[in-house]
Structure formats: C-alpha cells, structure tokens
C-alpha cells in the first residue's frame, strides 16, 4: 500500500491524499481547492498530479472548499465513481460547489475584462456551474458511526470531528493483499468549546494516522472571550470611530458563529442599534442547512434556544442574496457591520467591500479565522500597507484587527487531546498535513513529547510505501 500527498502538504489548502493498494485500487481522501497561493494558485488547481480516471473511490471529510472545491473538476476530468460523505456534508456541498462554480465564472469574467483592455487572451474558469451540477450526482451519504463496506477491500466509518456540521474523521479498514490496515484521516479537528457544535468525538484505533496541524504552534483564547472581544471591536469601529466593521468569514461555520455571538449581544441589550449584513448567498443557504441539522447542536445551544428559538437571527440583521442589495451596502454612510465571504479574501463579495472601504481610516477589517500567508487576508494580518484586489493596488488605511477565538480549528493542545483516544504505540506512522511547514515542525515536536513516534511531514506529491 502507498499513501501519496497531492495537497495540504507543507501548506494549508488543497487537501488531497491518495491511497493505492497492491491490486491497483486507488482511494482519494478529499479533493480540495488550493487557495491563497498567489500566482501559483491557478497552476496548482489546474493539475492534480494523478489521473482522475484511475481513481476508484473518493471519500470526503467535510464540505469546506479547501477540502471539496476541486470535486467538479475531478469529475469533469474523468472520475466516475461515488463520493462518500456524511449527510450534512452532502447537503452543504449541494450549495457550496455551485457557489464555488459561480464565483469561478464571475471572477473570470471580471478578470477577462481587464485582460481584454490589456490585449491579453481570456482565461477559462476551473469549472462551470454545469460541471458542479454533474458532480453532485456522484455523492452518497453515510451517517456517523455506521461501518459501511464500500467494496471487497474497503470498509468506512465516519466519526464526528466537531469542525463544522457534517465534518468527520475518515476511518478506513482496507484489505491490501493478505494484510488489513486501519487508516484514520482526521480532516479538520474542531474545538471542545464550540458555540454551536458538539465536541469532537473519539475515533477508532488506527495503524496509520493522517492528521491536520493548522494551529500546531499556538494556543487560542478561550471561546468565552470571543463575545467580549467582538463587543470591543464593534464598539471601537462603529461607535467610537463611526465607521464600518468588515468581517471576512467563511460562509459555513465561521459566519454562523459570529452571528450567534452578535445575537447573544443583541439579546442582552449590548449591541448598538446598527445594521448588520450577512452578504453572501452561500451563507444564507448554509445557515438554513445548519438549522436543518439540530442533531449536530451542543447542549449549550439547545438550552439557549429555549429562550431564543433562532440563534441566527435578530433585529437589525439582514441576509443579502441579490447583487444590487450587496452593492447598495457600500452606499451607506452610517456605521454598520458587514459579514461576507471568503474568509481569506480570495474571492466573493468581500473583495468588493474591501475595494470600497479599505482606504477609509474610520473603517475596520476584523479577521476572525486562519488566513494563509500569501492570501489577501494573510497579507492584512501581517501588516501589509497595500493589497491587490482584482489587479489594482489599494492602500490599507482601515484598521486591521485579528480575533482568534472564532477559529473552527483546534489549537495544539486541543488537537493532542483529540488524538489521546489512540494507543500511541499501535500507530505505525503519523503524517502531518494541512499546515505551514514551520508550524508542522513545532507540532511534530509537541507530538513526539506526547509519545507519538514515526511522525512525518510529507512533501507535496511525495508518497510513502507501507
């Protein structure tokens, strides 16, 4: 058996891990979009590093675009098998992949106008809405904690990873010649004190572990501080400075957590009487899907809903679908809060909101999640004085604030706590994925101190024979 790493290897996005059995059978874990890689992004997303026609099975840990966003292209280039995931992940992919395709087409149209002015050849989107629709026909949902035989050689069980609704650890038992191997792929690991979701669930013992390492070198502020710090950000941006608070946030998970905290503040009478916009059709649809999966809610949220039956709605909050309504927000002269995707500011309506607001010193950009270093969000976090948006440079006069308690990824203590359900001496190899290289090196040291052995940091497109 071989395991190959074709994304999220010494980097944070583009999750793709390929298992190849002795009989030639190939199993793909995730098929994510590379994001925030600057001029290399198009090249990375344009070539898989393997032949999609040769893949026999695909298994998806969760619906975030850096894990699922290249599925339409995979199918477009010849993958003809099933895509296994949890029911909530399937429901989210129904909207997220179509939204991603829409963004691909819209961004390319916008870019091609500029290319035409400079007499450059037009470029094509990675995939279209038609491609996304075709890929959705390949999805099959399997509930948590149900062992399912996929074929003669592969058994699958999903366990709850607590990252977003539907997120799962992929637990595989594979027959490889005369041997059986137990492989666990954590996907993204969630928080133990999530405002919405249940805590991550212990997962079955494995022989080989593939695990994320996004925050392998840091500790988060505890979630109770999220409300306090968001309140402070709103007060400073909208009351003291009289400006707009712009919050780039991924449409699934992060947006709903921010809205939930604002809902709490409004319920407690602390939120200023200002307008709050969630400007993302995807976030609107995703919020409804989250409402449709109360089985994922934790006890805190269920208790709160006895007093407030809608934790994602309050006076002053408006969900925006139409483009003309999105554009109208930028004509507002009054203080307001704008929550829009994407979280790394790599696409979507958030880029247009920054174009209209980032040069105004009265405004504030609040970063509430991880941003890769080369993404626009990452540049802002690292103190950039200018950023490029759709090929034009803009001065960063707005205040930039980073708020980490909203992260949906566990920090290194939380990740180690999650892995503590495993008998370490049984695990033959541990592979670190989904993290920057320097972070991985630090996290590897943490794991080794905890008793994990044979911890590897794979190179991009490297493979290991087991």
Characterization of this structure:
- It is a single chain.
- With 466 residues, this protein is α/β, with parallel strands linked by helices.
- It folds into two domains: 2-218 and 408-465, Ribonuclease Z/Hydroxyacylglutathione hydrolase-like (Metallo-beta-lactamase, Chain A, 4-Layer Sandwich); 224-406, Rossmann fold (3-Layer(aba) Sandwich).
- It is 31% helix and 21% strand.
- The chain has 14 helices and 22 strands.
- The chain has helices at residues 41-46, 65-68, 71-76, 87-117, 129-136, 224-240, 254-267, 281-291, 299-304, 323-329, 350-357, 376-381, 412-419, 437-449; strands spanning 2-5, 17-20, 26-29, 57-59, 83-85, 139-141, 148-149, 154-160, 168-176, 179-185, 208-212, 244-248, 275-279, 317-320, 336-340, 364-367, 386-389, 392-395, 399-402, 429-433, 455-456, 462-465.
- The strands form four sheets. Strands 6-5-4-3-2-1-22 form a seven-stranded mixed beta sheet. A seven-stranded mixed beta sheet has the order 7-8-9-10-11-20-21, covered by helices on one side.
- β7 (148-149) and β8 form a beta hairpin.
- α4 runs antiparallel to α5 (129-136).
- The protein starts with a strand and ends with a strand.
- The mean pLDDT is 93.
Topology:
Blueprint: E1 2-5, E2 17-20, E3 26-29, H1 41-46, E4 57-59, H2 65-68, H3 71-76, E5 83-85, H4 87-117, H5 129-136, E6 139-141, E7 148-149, E8 154-160, E9 168-176, E10 179-185, E11 208-212, H6 224-240, E12 244-248, H7 254-267, E13 275-279, H8 281-291, H9 299-304, E14 317-320, H10 323-329, E15 336-340, H11 350-357, E16 364-367, H12 376-381, E17 386-389, E18 392-395, E19 399-402, H13 412-419, E20 429-433, H14 437-449, E21 455-456, E22 462-465
Parallel strand pairs: 3-4, 4-5, 5-6, 10-11, 11-20, 12-15, 12-16, 13-14, 13-15, 16-19, 20-21
Antiparallel strand pairs: 1-2, 1-22, 2-3, 7-8, 8-9, 9-10, 17-18
Helix pairs in contact: 4-5, 4-8, 6-7
């Amino acid at each position: 058996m071989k395991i190959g790493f074709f994304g999220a290897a010494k980097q944070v996005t583009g999750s793709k891990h390929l298992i190849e059995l002795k009989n030639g059978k190939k199993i793909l874990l995730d098929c994510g979009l590379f994001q925030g890689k600057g001029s290399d992004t198009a090249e990375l997303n344009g070539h898989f590093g393997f032949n999609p026609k040769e893949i026999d099975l695909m298994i998806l840990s969760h619906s975030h675009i850096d894990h699922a966003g290249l599925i339409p292209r995979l199918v477009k280039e010849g993958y003809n098998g099933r895509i296994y995931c949890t029911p909530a992940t399937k429901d989210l992919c129904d909207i997220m992949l179509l939204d991603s395709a829409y963004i691909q087409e819209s961004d390319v149209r916008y870019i091609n106008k500029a290319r035409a002015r400079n007499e450059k050849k037009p470029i094509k989107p990675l995939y279209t809405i038609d491609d996304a629709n075709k890929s959705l026909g390949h999805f099959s949902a399997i509930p948590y904690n149900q062992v399912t035989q996929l074929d003669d050689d592969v058994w699958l069980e999903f366990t709850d990873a607590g990252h977003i609704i539907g997120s799962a650890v992929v637990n595989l038992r594979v027959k490889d010649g005369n041997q059986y191997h137990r492989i666990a792929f954590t996907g993204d690991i969630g928080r133990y004190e999530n405002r919405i979701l249940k805590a991550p669930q212990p997962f079955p013992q494995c022989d080989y572990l593939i695990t994320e390492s996004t925050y392998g070198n840091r500790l988060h502020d505890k979630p109770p501080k999220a409300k306090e710090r968001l309140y402070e950000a709103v007060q400073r941006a909208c009351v003291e400075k009289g400006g707009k608070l712009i919050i780039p946030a991924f449409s699934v998970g992060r947006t709903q957590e921010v809205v939930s905290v604002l809902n709490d503040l409004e319920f407690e009478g602390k939120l200023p009487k200002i307008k709050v916009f969630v400007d993302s059709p995807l976030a609107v649809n995703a919020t409804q899907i989250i409402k449709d999966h109360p089985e994922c809610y934790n006890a805190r949220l269920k208790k709160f809903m006895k007093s407030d039956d809608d934790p994602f709605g309050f006076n002053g909050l408006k969900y925006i679908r139409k483009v003309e309504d999105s554009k109208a927000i930028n004509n507002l002269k009054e203080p307001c809060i704008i929550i829009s995707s994407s979280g790394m500011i790599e696409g979507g309506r958030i880029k247009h909101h920054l174009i209209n607001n980032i040069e105004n010193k009265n405004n504030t950009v609040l970063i509430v999640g991880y941003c890769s270093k080369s993404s626009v969000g990452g540049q802002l976090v690292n103190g950039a004085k200018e950023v490029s948006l759709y090929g034009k440079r803009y001065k960063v006069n707005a205040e930039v604030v980073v708020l980490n308690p909203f992260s949906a990824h566990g920090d290194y203590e939380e990740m180690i706590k999650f892995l503590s359900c495993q008998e370490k001496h049984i695990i033959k190899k541990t592979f670190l994925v989904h993290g920057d290289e320097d972070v991985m090196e630090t996290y590897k040291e943490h794991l080794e101190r905890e008793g994990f052995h044979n911890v590897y940091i794979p190179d991009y497109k490297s493979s290991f024979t087991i």
